[in-house]
Design brief:
α13 crosses α19 and α23 crosses α24. It contains 24 helices and 15 strands. The protein is an alpha/beta fold. A hairpin with a 5-residue loop joins β4 and β5. The relative contact order is 0.09. It starts with a helix and ends with a helix. It has a six-stranded parallel sheet, sandwiched between helices. It is globular.
């Protein structure tokens, strides 16, 4: 079996091997999407394909949609060339359950793949055609927190952003430049309405996206590329809305073991690839079954019946905010960010395996239940305690998911502000200090210990991709392993940086505590684990 349109016609072979295939006409929904695009998505990696692609696949199966998604890549064009084009934009969803069983399904909802490359005449022309279509209702995003950033941690514009500002809408490079350029095309075509929906793990993600778009537009006004009327268009949320969302589905890197299993069933060419930009991707996507997508219901050009998709909740902004804070600042992401780095330092590959350590499990529960949950509000549509129970009793411990600790460290510098800073600020607001926290500062110390780049036996290792990893690693380079006294003021510029943590950890009462934990973690072989056990005793 080959994953392409031609081979998909032979449905009996797929079904015989336990792989479901679309009941809808894939060619027809593809044709409809190309002629009258309705939904565009930026950032077309693993979580998009299995989650958003899976939701649309389900709506197509129910007859609630008649067109697929237009998939747009702004960062890693190899994804289009190596994963989309060779497989006719089809994807194979592999859902991994805690009992070891799997659900395999071919997704036919990814109708077109476009490179958002202004230097590519054909792709750029096609993107403009898509954005000027009356039928377009939704532009969604999973580009990670760093994809929305215009400035670095020092507050200076990133190099490619400077280029986008200087060179204008027809020569953009970055995602925010591309989006703003396409909104300009839509504005010139009649100022048609549209919803821009961030689905990344960012606090108030819709506002983050809006701020970047408006700021880019303002810079173009200063340069004379656009007029004030364009600013009015992107600022009018009855024309261009920026709904808030909360998204949750654990989607690890593609597993070679699963690729081998699929090939043993007769599905050809399933092996994962690592692109030149270190994107880990495959023709299939392995993920867990549970998923949550809470979306602010603000769509000025209409929308599909999203609430009928699996795991989708339509709500008002306040409810989305509460659901997002529940997940991102208390129950899930802080646990990943606090524990994952220890797995790398201790030489433990899988997150589920790491949680078999009783001190780590206790620390994770303390981050969520004891320290995070008391300062969040119940969103009502999802019960926080039930959500956390599902995580610790089902999702986190699912060994078959194969989620790795090194993946959890990827781009962590872009999330620690939301995951730890927000809770820290909430404690300061309520009690005047956050000094009573233990597990969260221990997790921050563990993250810095990971960025130190030396494991618990004193051996060096490679850090996961992260825009601040090299910089922070360099700041810690004067610290001598085995010599806690060598930790002087190296951590202060990091822990006091409000661009990283959204607060000054010293003013919050945690800076010195984190420094103390870190000193103990570098005393010598085994000292990192010993420190966790000491404070979780």
């Amino acid at each position: 079996m080959k994953l392409n349109y031609k081979e998909l016609v032979n449905q009996s072979a797929w079904k015989k091997n336990g792989i479901k295939v679309p009941s809808y006409d894939v060619a027809k929904v593809t044709e409809n999407a190309i002629k009258n695009p309705g939904w565009v998505h930026f950032g077309i990696g693993n979580i998009f394909r299995v989650f958003i692609g899976g939701i649309v696949d389900g709506l197509l199966e129910q007859g609630l949609m008649d067109k697929g998604i237009t998939c747009v890549e702004t960062f890693d064009y190899d994804v289009v060339d190596k994963i989309y084009a060779p497989f006719d934009n089809l994807a194979l969803s592999v859902i991994l359950k805690g009992d070891g069983t799997r659900e395999n399904k071919v997704l036919g909802s990814l109708s077109e793949a476009v490179k958002a490359q202004s230097s590519d005449v054909d792709n750029w022309k096609r993107l403009k055609e898509i954005f000027t279509s009356d039928s377009l209702q939704i532009v969604s995003f999973t580009i990670t927190e760093k994809g929305y950033a215009l400035k670095n941690a020092a507050g200076d514009y990133l190099g490619y952003v400077v280029s986008d500002i200087e060179n204008g809408p027809d020569a953009v490079i970055g995602a925010m430049g591309v989006v703003t350029s396409m909104l300009l095309e839509r504005f010139k075509a009649g100022a048609r309405p549209l919803a821009l929906v961030s689905m990344d793990n960012c606090s108030h993600n819709g506002d983050l996206l809006r701020q970047s778009v408006v700021e880019m537009a303002e810079k173009w006004v200063e340069k004379g590329y656009v007029g004030e009327d364009f600013i009015a268009y992107v600022s009018d949320q009855s024309k261009v809305s920026f709904p808030w969302t909360m998204i949750d589905k654990i989607t690890p890197r593609p597993s070679t073991e699963i690729a081998n299993d699929l090939e043993a069933l007769g599905v050809e060419n399933m092996q994962p690839v690592v692109t030149g930009k270190r994107t880990y991707i495959a023709p299939f996507i392995n993920a867990e079954k549970p998923q949550y997508l809470v979306i602010e219901d603000s769509f000025p050009n209409g929308r599909p019946e999203l609430e009928k998709g699996f795991g989708v909740y339509m709500a008002d902004r306040e409810t989305v905010n509460k659901a997002e804070r529940m997940k991102v600042t208390a129950c899930l992401n802080p646990v990943h960010s606090a524990l994952g780095p220890f797995g790398v330092v201790w030489g433990v590959d899988l997150f589920a395996e790491l949680l078999e350590d009783p001190a780590i499990m206790k620390m994770g529960r303390q981050v969520a239940y004891t320290e995070g949950m008391p300062v969040i509000e119940d969103p009502k549509i999802i019960d926080p305690r039930a959500f956390a129970d599902e995580l610790f009793e089902d999702r986190f411990i699912n060994k078959y998911l194969g989620d790795t600790n090194i993946r959890l460290c990827t781009d962590e510098s872009q999330g620690v502000g939301v995951r730890f800073g927000e809770t820290t600020k909430a404690y300061v607001a309520r009690y005047g200090t956050a000094e009573q926290l233990v597990a969260i500062p221990l997790g921050i110390a563990g993250w810095l210990r990971y960025l130190y780049g030396v494991d618990d036996n004193g051996n060096a290792y490679e850090l996961a991709p992260d825009p601040l990893a090299a910089e922070i690693h360099e700041q810690l380079s004067t610290i001598k392993y085995g010599d806690p006294a060598s930790v002087t003021d190296q951590l202060r510029p990091i822990l006091s940086n409000e661009n990283i943590f959204f607060t000054d950890m010293y003013k919050a009462g945690l800076g010195e505590k984190i420094e103390g934990y870190f000193r103990e973690m570098i005393e010598g072989p085994g000292s990192c684990k010993k420190t966790v056990y000491k404070y979780m005793d």
